[in-house]
Structure formats: C-alpha cells, structure tokens
Specification:
heterodimer; A: 0% strand; B: Cytochrome C Oxidase, Chain A; 16 helices
C-alpha cells in the first residue's frame, strides 16, 4: 500500500479529488473496491431467491415446467439479446472515456440507456400478458386474483391457457409465478436504478466532467450494469428454458 | 510507561472536531466520521434504554409464577420487542457504528472513512428503520419473537409484523453500508508503513465483522421482504398452506442471524485485545493467531446456522455436521482467550475501568462459550432447546461479552472522543456492580433452564420461583449498574478532568493526535515505523531498527 503514495502525483489537485484521499489513484482504488463489495452484497441478496427457486424447482418439477412453458420465450430471448448488447455499449462507453474519445463516450452512454429502457419496455409487455391471463399470484394486484384458465385434454391449443403436465397443480404454478415476479421484479428495480445512474453520468458527461484523468464513476457504474446483466443471464435459462422439452416431446 | 518517551505529543490546538463548527446543521449534514460516530452513540443509547425497559418488564413479570403483571399476549410482545430493539438497534450497530466509526480511520492513519457521504447515509437509514419500528411498537407491537418464524409471522400473528419487518429491512442497509465502508477503508487508506500486520487487533476484528455485515445482512433483508410479501399478498414460499416450506425460512433466517451473533461479539473481542495488551503494557501474545482467529470466526460462523434447527425436522446427518462445525467454531474463540491470558502472564497490569470490563469479558465470554458447546452437542440440545439455559447462554455472549466490550471500549476511548476523563472511582464501582448484577441475573437461569423451565412463557411452575427471584434481583442491580455510567459519562463531558493527547501513555496511532482530534485527525499523514503494541524500551527499538536497516542493506 505504501507504494500507492508515491505514484501518480500528476493527478493531485484534480478538482474531483476528495479531501480525505491522498491522490486520484487512491480514490479510484477505493471507488472500485467499494463497488465490488457492493456487488457481493447483491449476490447474497439475490442468492436467497435463487435458493428458494432451487428448492421448489426440485420439489415441484412438473408444476415449474408447466409454468415455465407458459412464459414467452421469444420476448425473453429478445430481452437477453438487448441486455448483452447493452453490456457491450457500456463497455465501449468506459473505453471511450478512458482514452478520451468523447463522441464514443456520449453515444454509447445514450445507447446503453436506450437499450435498458427497451428491456424494461419488453418486460412490461410480458407482465401485461401475465395480467391478462390472470397469472399474477396471490393478491399482489387487489381484485385480480391468480385464476388462469387451464387447458383440458383434447381441447384445441390456446396459448392463453395453462397446460399442466402430469403431477402439476395450479397452486404450485402460482408459487412459480411468485418466484418469477419476485426475481424479475427485483431485477427490473435494479435496471431502473441503473438507467437512473446512467442518466446522471450522461448529463455530467455532456458537461465534460469525465475523461482520461477522471473516469471512475463511469467504470463503477459499468461494473454495476454488467452485474445486473449477469443476473438476467442466470434468470433467463432458469425461468424460461428449463423443462421446456417436457411438453414439446424432447 | 516506557515506550512513548520518544514521542512528542502535538502542540495542543484549540480547534477540534467538536468545536470546528456549531449548530444543528453542522451535525446533521456532517461527513466527519467522528461526528457520525457520536450521532450513532446517541441513537443506540436511546434504544438501549428502551430495550432495557422491556427487560425490566420481563423480569418483573417473572418475579412470581402466576401471570399477574402482564397478560400473555402483552408478555409475548414485550419479549419480542426486547429482542428486536436490543439486537437490531443496539447490539449490532453498537461497537462498529460508534467506536468503529470513530477509530477505524484514526487507527490506520486516515483522514476519514473512504465514503463519508455513505457513512452519513447509513445513519439516516438507521434512523429511518428506527422510526418505522417505533411506529410499529406504538401502533400495537409485534409478538412473533425476534425470530419471525413462519408460518406464525406470515399468516397467524395479529400484530404489526410487516411494519416491524420493514424497520429491520431498512436498518439492515445501514449495517451493509458501514461494513462496506470499513472494508474499503482498511484496504485502501492505511497510512504509509501501516502494513496489515501492524494493524491494531481492533481493526482486524472490525474487518472480520464487516465481512459478516456484507455477506449476511442481504440474506436477512430478502428473507424479511419475502416474509412481508407473503403476509400482505398471500404469495407464499414459507407457508405450507401455500405449498411453501417453513423450514426454508429458518435456514435463511439463521444463515444471517447466527453470524449476527459474531457481529455482536467480534468487535468486543477486538476491543478486549486492545484493552488486554495496552493495560498490561505488553505486546499481545500471538498477534497473528489473534488476528486470523477473527477471520476464522467470521468464516466458520457462516457454516453453523443449523445448530439452531436441531429439533426443526433437519436430517440427523445435517445435524451431526452442524454439531461438529459448531464445536469447530469454538477453536478460534478459545485461541483468543488463551492468547489474552498468556498476554496477562508476567505483565504489569493496571486495573483501570476499561481493563475491569476487559477482564470481565474474558470471564463471562468463557462461560458463555463453554455453555454454547453444551448446546452444540446434539443430544444435550434436544433437552435444552427453548429452555432458559439457552436464554442464559446467549445473554452471557451478548451482554457478558458484547456489552462488556462496548462499555470497556467506551471508557477506554472516552478521553479521545470527548477530551475529558470519566471519574475513575465511579467507573470501577460501576464495572463491579455490572459484573455482580449480570451474574446474579443470568447464572440462576442456567439452573432453571437445565431443570426444564421453558422460555417465552409469562407463567411458570412454582418450583422455579427461587431462580426467577434471584434473576430479577440481579437484573435490578444490573440496571442500576448501567445507570451509573450513563450519568457520569454525560457529567464528564462538561465537568470531567481534561484529558491530554495520550492519557494512557500508549503507542497506538489514535493516541498520537490531540484529544479530541482535529477534523482531519492528524496534522500531517503519519508514517508508521513501529509494530502494534510495541512496548519495548526505546533504546531496544532503536537497536532493532538499526539491525533491520543493516540487514536490508546487506
């Protein structure tokens, strides 16, 4: 640690240097480590829900597969693509800031925000579909209880009806949807916060606050954005894909 | 009395962190870690007395075998609220948020914590959580026990479970932010020369505690959130009626709440390491063992939660593993106790008030730890589960351990915090009263519990009355003992003898700046050239230093 006091003297006196840090290098280290530690807490936070998912997936496999089948795989896959692309533009925004390519920085920050909003828009469409099919669990929306129509054998295919695999009960399908809404809802909250942070960064970037001398806020927000992206990378297969072959004869 | 003779105390300055600015705004918008520590000190003291009032109500009710003072429903609320207030709003923030906040930057030679605004935010989050919880208590209280076991909490309890849960949920983020701040500060802001193995052991303890803060607290947050949603919207993963598993709640709850016990006692162990080394004027025996045992406790602490669930339908094999691991976690604790006692051997001990609390800690923590082993043993635990034996055991850890360390630390650093000495004679007297009162309160509960008296009932068979009378008498003495420091510490802030920079004549960094410290702690960033607890005479230090220099030149 002692070395860090003798390096990067050039950055001293930068207007963004806070009074309690010795130099910009130390401030950057602290900011980055702070975000990593915060992301660890986030992993533990989501971990509780992943544990609940794992337990009940193994306890009620048929019901979870039935419920999972009813999710819109096209919209889910599209959203996965949108998020991966947004991580790419985020990484480019960080790169653009570090090397001083200002147009790249501004363009990519704006594009990341747009992609984030696109994800939230598609998610809203999915939520609305679930609302229409009465798949909102419990009394989360008062007066609109969980009461999906269930396909009976021999009936013609209706995508708005629940197709129950042998051994699945509506009660346990409801639990899947609670876990689905809890996890994707908490993920969406993180997306909204991320879009908010990026909007701040964009405003201050327009005011030329960040550049090769001072880019830590964009870097750590990038870390956060990639983390939220990775959570979705886990959510998509667990919620949308697992058990899909059971119905489609795979 | 020898080590510090080479150290020239800084010229006393009239400006310090207390009088640098005046007015309410200068306190409520402060980013100075020392002022935030005082904000926390005031808040947790308030809650300590609220929790204490509930404790007295419990002890008064249990004075007689009949349920005559409180109705059973009221009693349920009183013991629940005693637990919630004391654990979440006093013990967990106690040492980290006050002494830790004040001392972590000072002990490592930094100007402030890494994120001063987040530090202030953590206090506001604490206050927000506290206000929501106070609302819940005033609106009608909560009766689930501090453990919130489902499905009672999610479905059947007719009390303010959601509001209380929300208060605890919010409060948790203040712990997370404090832990995050400490970890980053200790990693990135140590003064030149302050290597990891020169850190005071209090810093190691704070680091280990912070690990538990950031790894454990998010889990209780999501658990309480899911519990509240289950109660509000009938979306279930805990209630069997909704297809859920109540044992999952217990797993998630104890995954945090067992490590939370170490959040309470590890900081005290850190304080006691300081007290033992400094008041026996000797380098701590086995510095690295004491340092790493803190980390070992933090790590092992995450692997033993199942010992709370030996009778909760957990598999026998899981029970055996959890039992084994619970025995294993006793090893790092024992390492600390042995190293402290080895430090005391042939040292020059001074029995000032902080040291009395330090020695009290060793005695009471040992009893608490040993009785913990009884409870970690599967067969014994089946007999003792949910009896007063458990109550006595964890009070020996949380009050006998955590609270003693807190009081010891508060007295030890009081001259640094306020610039005034507390009255020493009163301090020693109170420490003695607290020790006697504490043992009289909780020692009889071991016996009552072993004989089968269950916890959480407001009435009990008459044969247990003698133990309860002793316990209530002890609680009265303990309560009196707590009031004495509350009075003389407040008194000393105005009328106490002025303290100089280094009233105990010690080598630590926090004693090498004026009392109270200036806002930026040190005039210039210190350069550390000495080991922690270096009590060797100066000429020896000089020789060692010269030898080292020659060695490096070869």
């Amino acid at each position: 640690m002692a070395e860090s006091y003798t390096t990067t003297k050039h950055a001293e006196g930068h207007p963004a240097l806070q009074h309690h840090f010795e130099n910009m290098e130390q401030q950057r280290e602290a900011g980055t480590l702070g975000m990593w530690v915060f992301l660890v807490t986030e992993i533990m936070f989501f971990g509780g829900m992943f544990l609940a998912y794992t337990l009940y997936r193994s306890k009620y496999p048929a019901a979870f597969a039935s419920a999972s089948n009813h999710l819109d795989i096209t919209l889910g896959a599209a959203n996965t693509g949108v998020l991966i692309l947004s991580s790419f533009t985020m990484a480019l925004a960080v790169y653009g800031t570090q090397v001083g390519k200002r147009k790249l920085q501004l363009f990519c920050l704006a594009l990341t925000i747009v992609l984030g909003l696109t994800f939230l828009g598609i998610k809203a469409v999915e939520y609305k579909d679930k609302y229409v099919d009465s798949l909102i669990p419990g009394t989360l929306i008062p007066g609109h209880p969980f009461s999906p129509a269930v396909q009976v054998p021999g009936e013609s295919f209706d995508e708005h009806k629940l197709h129950l695999l042998p051994g699945a009960t509506v009660k346990n399908v409801e639990m899947f949807y609670w876990i689905y809404f809890a996890m994707t809802g908490m993920h969406a909250v993180h997306m909204i916060i991320g879009v908010g942070l990026l909007s701040f960064l964009l405003v201050f970037s327009v005011k030329r606050r960040y550049g090769p001398e001072y880019h830590n806020p964009i870097e750590v927000t990038g870390l956060y954005w990639h983390f939220v992206d990775i959570v979705w990378i886990f959510l998509f297969p667990l919620l949308y894909l697992l058990g899909r072959h059971l119905e489609h004869g795979g | 009395m020898r080590a510090i003779e080479t150290f020239e105390p800084p010229a006393p300055s009239k400006v310090n962190y207390l009088n640098a600015e005046y007015g309410l705004k200068s306190w409520l918008l402060t980013r100075d870690h020392k002022r935030i520590a005082l904000l926390y000190l005031g808040s947790i003291t308030f809650f300590f007395f609220i929790g204490g009032i509930y404790a007295m109500m419990i002890r008064l009710e249990l004075l007689t075998p009949q349920g005559d003072l409180l109705q059973s429903t009221t009693y349920n609320k009183v013991f629940t609220q005693h637990g919630i207030i004391m654990i979440f709003f006093f013990l967990i923030p106690s040492i980290p948020a006050t002494l830790g906040n004040f001392l972590v930057p000072m002990m490592i030679g930094a100007k402030d914590l890494a994120f001063p605004r987040i530090n202030l935010l953590s206090w506001y989050i604490y206050i927000a959580g506290a206000l929501v919880t106070i609302y819940a208590l005033l609106a009608g209280g909560v009766d689930t026990g501090w453990t919130f076991y489902a499905p009672f909490s999610t479905t059947f309890s007719n009390s303010y479970v959601v509001a209380t849960g929300l208060g605890i949920f919010i409060n948790g983020f203040s712990s997370i932010l404090t832990g995050l701040n400490f970890i980053v500060t200790i990693h990135t802001m140590r003064a030149p020369g302050m290597t990891w193995f020169r850190l005071p052991l209090f810093i190691w303890a704070m680091y280990a505690t912070s690990l538990i803060f950031v790894l454990g607290t998010p889990v209780i947050a999501i658990t309480i959130l899911l519990m509240a949603f289950e109660r509000l919207a009938h979306v279930g993963i805990f209630d069997p009626a909704l297809g859920g598993d109540p044992v999952l709640f217990q797993h998630l709850f104890w995954f945090y709440s067992h490590p939370a016990v170490y959040i309470m006692v590890l900081p005290s162990m850190g304080v006691v390491s300081e007290l033992i080394a400094n008041f026996s004027r000797k380098n701590i025996f086995g510095y690295k063992f004491v340092a790493f045992s803190s980390l070992a406790i933090a790590v092992f602490g995450f692997l033993v939660w199942g010992h709370h669930m030996f009778v909760s339908s957990q598999s026998v094999y899981a029970g055996m593993i959890f039992s084994f691991l619970s025995f294993a976690v006793a090893i790092p604790s024992a390492i600390k106790v042995f190293n402290w006692t080895a430090t005391l051997y042939k040292s020059s001990i001074s029995y000032d008030t902080p040291m009395l609390y330090g020695l009290g800690f060793i005695c009471l923590f040992t009893i608490g730890g040993m009785t913990g082993l009884f409870l970690a043993a599967l067969a014994v635990d089946v007999h003792l589960t949910d009896t007063y034996f458990v109550v006595a055991h964890f009070h020996y850890i949380m009050v006998g351990g955590a609270l003693m360390g807190y009081l010891g630390g508060l007295h030890y650093w009081w001259p640094k915090i306020t610039g005034r000495m507390y009255p020493e004679a009163w301090g020693r007297f109170a420490a003695l009263i607290v020790f006697v009162g504490f043992n009289l309160t909780f020692m009889p509960q071991f016996v009552a519990g072993y004989m089968g008296m269950p916890r959480r009932y407001h009435a009990y068979p008459p044969e247990f009355q003698v133990f309860n009378v002793l316990s209530t008498a002890g609680a009265s003495i303990l309560g009196f003992g707590m009031l004495i420091p509350a009075i003389y510490l407040v008194w000393s802030m105005r009328y106490g003898k002025r303290a100089d920079a280094n009233p105990w004549n010690l080598p630590g960094l926090e004693w090498r700046t004026q009392s109270p410290p200036p806002t930026e702690n040190f005039e210039t960033t210190p350069v550390v050239t000495w080991e922690a607890y270096e009590f060797a005479p100066p000429e020896e230090i000089e020789v060692i230093g010269r030898l080292r220099g020659e060695f490096e030149n070869v």
